[in-house]
Amino acid sequence: MPEGTVTVAGLRAGSVPADTEPEKAGTPGGPVPSGACSDTRREIAFHGERSGRAPLTWGQRAIWHAIRRTAPNDHYFNIGRVLPLADRGRPVTVPEALGALTRLTERHESLRTRLLLPALDGEPAQSLADAGTLSVTMTRAAGLPEAAAEAEALLGRLSATRFDYAAEWPVRAALITVGDRVTHAVLVLCHLAADGHAAEILVRDLRLLVRRGSAGPPPATTPLDLARDQHAAAGRRRGAAALAHWEAGYRAAPPTMFPDLCAQPRTPRFWTGRLVSPALARAVGTVAATHRVSGSTVLLTASAALVAAGEGHRTAAVMPIVGNRTAGALRDLVSTLSQDGLFVLDLAEASGPRAASGLAEPHGPTEPHGPMEPSGPMEPSGPTEPSGLAGTFTDLLPAAYRSALRAYRAAVYDPVEWDALGERLSAEYGTDVHPYCCFNDMRLVERALPEGPRATGAEPAEARRRTTFGFPATQDRVACRYCLHVTEEGDALAVSLTADTAYLPPEAIRAHLYAMEELIVASAAGTPPPLTELRTLLVAAGGDRP
């Protein structure tokens, strides 16, 4: 699933006891907005440099396909941010804030771009407007504490409804005032216009426009120019090479990671479990530094290994959300560039002696040479103990790091061709070919591990006592069975797992998150669990912890 920064406030909420029903909307606890708050509207007129039409970029196509699969619950993909404006610097007036919003809309073409739907079946296009007006919600609050609470509440309200993709501008903006000063700005973005990284660019630029009146040179490229490049001959050749990696990966992995229904689905069907753990944050950094890999690789490998163990697979297939911003021209582009990658890890091969010597590494994506063996599903469905497993969790990391790099390099492709590949292989195998298992590390940067000796003795146990867990949100429909999101909360990692309760009931969601913490914390302490014990860890993880 393409990246979706879920702004249903539950994913940012505090813990809810594991034996309670999840919150369906809003943020449990916290400050209460002032009853004196009231909303009005102000219109701002913007004038950009050009108008035009183009096909959707591949990132836009990917999120559009996900939106259609998730509708009518596609507000799940809305991206929201709150920018405090009273925490530093001089006070900001309403005209200054409205002027900054105007210049922000003029600076970034994606904020002036709407979906152009086809008259008949077919792919939509994007239509850039050179001028228009944007309605800004204005909300008054009695004081700063009430303003902060109102900003969060307004973020939830503006995020809770789907966009009208063809008629509505892809940004909803609001300002909160105390007296004649603006204390907060709220942005809610359509995922067709921005991904999580782009949202941070917009927050940065809005802050600069408010404080300095300028955000610097304009972005090096635009969504329209990128779309034209991707749909040209050179772009299509790059996309074909990426899909060759996907085909090889599909053929090396089980058709899906969750083949069998195991429980009566709950209503709503999709539940989100959320674990917030300072111990996990420290442990991830320790394991990454020790084994010279990224923290994201540690978390991705743990997720893949636990899913494979729980379902009885020797090979794991996970779809990490890839930002696709390594090219300099794309780093400051406000658009949705993220697409799925395909991470495939044979646990037995990756942990064996050939992996340790580097002999197991494939040579990367190649063009397919016709049908490859085997021509059907490689593994029987149903959880069984995979054969040939040796070594411990940390033995997987070198091969996992290489597999992750291959996934990142092959994450730019035309989703229409990707769909065709999946349909072709599904017809060949006689079963649905799709991992239905995704991983989204939403952190923009990884914090460096503080220098010092490895934590020993009671330190990890003390940190784990600060771990919290709850079920803060539900959805009626999500186009996946296992969606893991990683964010930060203070000195802790916040790991959220949204899963289909027909395949992972709530107790299994809880077990996966606690098992991930246990797996990585034990590895950081120098006692990585053997791969043959991961299924047992899933059963025992969490125990009597809240």
Question: What keyword list fits this structure?
Answer:
single chain, 546 residues, alpha+beta, Chloramphenicol Acetyltransferase, 8-stranded mixed beta sheet, 6-stranded mixed beta sheet, 15 helices, 20% strand, globular, disordered N terminus
Characterization of this structure:
With 546 residues, the protein is α+β, with helices and mostly antiparallel strands. It has 2 domains: 6-28 and 40-230, Chloramphenicol acetyltransferase-like domain (Chloramphenicol Acetyltransferase); 255-367 and 378-540, Nonribosomal peptide synthetase, condensation domain (Chloramphenicol Acetyltransferase, 2-Layer Sandwich), CATH 3.30.559.30. The protein is 34% helix and 20% strand. The chain contains 15 helices and 17 strands. The protein has helices at 58-70, 94-107, 144-159, 196-211, 223-230, 233-252, 278-291, 295-311, 347-351, 353-357, 397-409, 415-429, 459-464, 506-524, 534-540; strands at 39-47, 52-55, 79-84, 92-93, 113-116, 125-128, 131-140, 171-178, 181-189, 270-277, 315-322, 339-340, 343-346, 438-441, 468-475, 482-489, 492-500. The strands form 3 sheets. Strands 10, 11, 12, 13, 14, 15, 16 and 17 form an 8-stranded mixed beta sheet that branches. Helix 2 (94-107) packs across helix 4 (196-211) and helix 7 (278-291) packs across helix 8. It is globular.
